[in-house]
Amino acid sequence: MSQSAIRLWMGLGFGAMAIYMPNLVTLPYFMHLIILALVWVILAQGQNLMQGLVGYVSITQAGFMGVGAYFSTLLTLKLGCSVWLTIFMTPFFTGLLSVLVGYPSLRVKGHYFAIVTLAYNMVIFTILLTFSSVTGGEAGISNIARPSSFSLWGYVIDFEGRSNSNYYLLVLLLAALSTGICGFILHSRVGRVFLAIRQNEVLADAIGIQSWRYKLFAFVMSAALAGLAGALYAHYIGFLNPEPFGVDQSLNAILAVILGGSGTLTGPVVGAFAVTFLPEYLRIADSYRLVTYGFILVIATIFLPRGLVPVAKDLYLFLISLLPKRK
Amino acid sequence: MIEIFQQSLNGLAIGAVYVLIALGLTVVFGILGIAHFAHGSVAMFGGYLTFLVMEKFGIPFFTAMGIAMVGGAALGLVIERLAYHPVQDAPHINAFIIALGLTMMMEGMNLLMFGADQVVIQTPYRGVFHIAGIAVAELRLIVILTACVLVGAITLLIAKTKTGKSIRAVAQNRQAAILMGVNVSMVSLVVFAISSALGVAAGALIGALLAIAPGVGEGLAVKGFAVLILGGLGSIPGAIAGGLILGVSEAMAAGFISSAYKDVIAFLVMILVLLFRPEGLLGKR
Amino acid sequence: MKTMSKKFAFTAVIGILSASLGGLSWATEKELVLGVNDALTGPGAVYGLPQSNAVKMAADEINAKGGIKAGADIYKLKVISNDDKANPTEATNSVRKLIDRDNVKYLLGFCCSGSTSAVASFIEKENVVMLVGNAAERAITAKGIPNLFRTRPPADFTGAAAGTFVAKRGAKNIAVIGSLDVSFYTQYLDAFEREINKAGGKIVAKETFGLKDRDMTPQLTKVRALNPDALLILGYVEPAAFVYRQATELGMKLPRYGFTSGSEEQFLRVATSEQMEGVWDLRPTELTVEALDANAKTYVANYTAKFGTAPSPSSPYAYDQVYVLKNAIESVGSADDTKKVIAAIRKLIVPKEAVMKYLPTAGAMFDVNGQAYTSNGAFQWQKGKWVYVSDLPSDTKTYSDYLRSLRN
């Protein structure tokens, strides 16, 4: 079988398993973590566009996630809009907002850019916290609605209740879609320009590429994905306060991309799951969480700068090469 | 009128601490090109260490601070060798991510070693003078003086000593310095030692003036970078001017505009400067 | 052959002995797991960690006395304590794990409003009992969640009583400085302001500071220029201590009323006793030995001996949660049916082991909203100690009805 045929079958296999997953997972605890991990996949794919493809570390992903979460929530709560509508609108809103943020920030490079985005994250966080008349401040907003149920071919698909399997399918679909979009970008001409900018921006400028346009595009796309993740998060948990959208979570997004594999497509997926499940397993050593996390980040950057997925790929290829060749 | 003076005086003391933090950051950035984000947590470590030395051995404040500064310098050496040195030839983004990882590690270690409660360093300087309606806390004056002394010492070190000359050479042109036989590896170590010592001093002073607690370090690091951007990356006079300006503006903003957005000032300043004068007030174009 | 029979005899003897010993225990000993969800690290840890410790101490005490005797069973208590870092996502993960993996039916602790509200938003669907402690946000009990109870009264219950007190002492122009982006402080302030306005006074300034702020001199300088008769300070103990210190450093000599709740130890780390002299704390009559009784004294002594530091004033909210459960389970006769335990808690009178001084509503500890009320007191710092000066008269029935009316 050819390489691409193998890939296709593997993909289909994963897809089928993913859809069947709710029947395999009996504990709501694991389902809960998987849903959160999928939301993080969307976030991490966005982060990957900036960090992995273009090569600019942005420390504001969680900030946009927060903006998206509050935007969708407030529209449904204060204006009574349908949740489906607001989830759809949120990426556009955060994308638009990011132009405001991105335009000045992208005039500077490297470290400056990272620090400015960090500053923006802190500003967003402070505003969410202080504008309590609108955002509910630290006490937060409760009773956020789930998407309304609809019927399809006679079956009613309902998102309320204790079973979260339908919400899981929704998030799975959107995560797959996000990955697909990023995959499309990666393999397109735009993606190649991103990589050129990452490798040598000066050279890219010299051959006539208007790099700021591409950088802005990547920034807007990543913010849109972050907003989508935020809206899905808010409507899932049902309660919202600014706490999960601070700088620490942006650092988590960076870790997810680094661990999984910067610049690859499956890297952010692996990274998102790692970053969601690891803290739960490290609960035994709760007081060591921060140190372990930081240590992993440092070690991963020194020894595994390309992330787990490329290393795993190399290992797989190496193992295949050991198989006896057909005569 | 009195209010303005009072706010300015309060702001100057905080500004002095910002200057020390920014100096630590600017030497590393200007000379080695590393955005050493973990600097804030190193400062906190220094503050905690000063407190510990004072509590356990009854050593007076300034001596304890001196001891902690030596400890800080040692920590700086370790950080340079183990964390930054391995990635010195890798893309800059890697060094930045290492900085973020180091920050988490240091915060975690501070938490493990010193606990989650806030730590306040008790000093004997508790007097308050009242001059023309303005309350001048003795401690605030001491902080300003200490910062001046340290800044003076560093400036002298860099301008007048042989080591300082090597540092300036590497800052101007790393490759040329290597060709001229300057031991660049040694310079790296020295720069980190100086930076960490300054950071520790800042931490000790913050501990005396306010408090050291988990999370304070990160805020200090961000403000430090704001000062750097305001003053001009790599410029020592810039760091001094920038730190004082930031400290006073924060006090003024909280006093006359709104206390809720006090911290936001630093970020707004940063953003504005990057928009209109990216090289900073005293930076080179 | 010889060894075989020796072995056989030996085994037989052991077998008979253990059978007879086994037959001696009539009651089956079971394990009851209590899940504590609190901020054990981060800025909320000043409230969360003492609560977690208090629960552990109560569990050890009960086990030492033989456990909870319910019907034919004896329950020995085991405590699992999770850190939610006052973060809603962490809290949700932690509670999910406790319920699904550790099979916990009884959740205790809950020091911080943000994370508690997140859990409260789904707890109704679960077959568990949730006992909330220090989290002061009113909405937590305003929603009428049937399986949620709170031992700590909402902030505005205390705010109204505090307002009346301060107005009676003649303050007409009051400046407020507090963590005003935390809604339970704003709720306290709203109730406080209403009482002040009723008496003809007004609030002349409302300055904010963040939970992590330590330098409030800009805000205090601004307030100083307005020349108020009194200062009201609303915040966590750590930043509030700095407000007290900096106010004296700025030469401000006016009565300082606070809603902060902290032990002498916590304040003395920051300010000297002279700087604290005369400061008021208008709060629920939490752990102060003069105000409370023998239970409180024993509690303080035991806690200090066990953990090496004085208990925080609000830690008994969690301690009492354990005894509420103990008494409810004993009256039902089993710990398995949570619905029966919930019904028992609703009818429960204040347990004799409770440390806090609760004001019963219609004879029971918890009202129709699942809310318990402690009396409110005026405390003043005198010569290095918090001294209980007087009670703040508070009306539980009126407040309980008001809380009920907030349900939609």
Spell out the key features of this protein.
heterotrimer, A: 327 residues, mainly alpha, two-stranded antiparallel sheet, B: 285 residues, ABC transporter involved in vitamin B12 uptake, BtuC, two-stranded antiparallel ribbon, 11 helices, 2 strands, 75% helix, globular
What's the CATH architecture name of chain B? Orthogonal Bundle
Rough outline of chain B = globular
Give the proportion of residues in helices of chain B. Answer: over 70%
Average the pLDDT over all residues of chain A and give the rounded result.
85
Low-confidence stretches of chain A: none
Order of helices and strands of chain A: HHHHHHEEHHHHHHHH
Compute the number of structural domains of chain B: 1
Q: Can you tell me the CATH class of chain B?
A: Mainly Alpha
Structure characterization notes:
- The complex is a heterotrimer of chains A (327), B (285) and C (408).
- Chain A has 327 residues and is mainly alpha-helical.
- Chain A contains 14 helices and 2 strands.
- Chain A has a two-stranded antiparallel ribbon with strand order 1-2.
- In chain A, strand 1 (150-152) and strand 2 form a beta hairpin.
- In chain A, helix 2 (28-54) runs antiparallel to helix 10.
- Chain A is globular.
- The two termini of chain A are 16 Å apart.
- The model of chain A has no long low-confidence stretch (mean pLDDT 85).
- Chain B has a single domain, classed as ABC transporter involved in vitamin B12 uptake, BtuC (Orthogonal Bundle).
- In chain B, helix 1 (2-32) packs antiparallel against helix 10 (236-257), helix 2 runs antiparallel to helix 3 (61-84) and helix 2 (39-57) packs parallel to helix 4.
- Chain C is of the alpha/beta class and 408 residues long.
- Chain C has 2 domains: 28-154 and 293-375, Response regulator (Rossmann fold), CATH 3.40.50.2300; 156-284, Rossmann fold.
- Helices cover 45% and strands 19% of the residues of chain C.
- In chain C, the strands form 2 sheets. A 7-stranded mixed sheet of chain C has the order 8-7-9-10-11-12-13, sandwiched between helices.
- In chain C, a hairpin with a 2-residue loop joins strand 2 (68-70) and strand 3 (73-83).
- Chain B binds chain C through residues 2-3, 6-7, 10-11, 14, 111, 116-120, 126, 128, 130, 135, 137, 209-211, 213-216, 219, 250-256, 258-260, 262-263, and chain C through 41-43, 45-46, 49, 180-181, 207-210, 212-215, 217-219, 221-222, 225, 238, 242, 249-251, 269-270, 272.
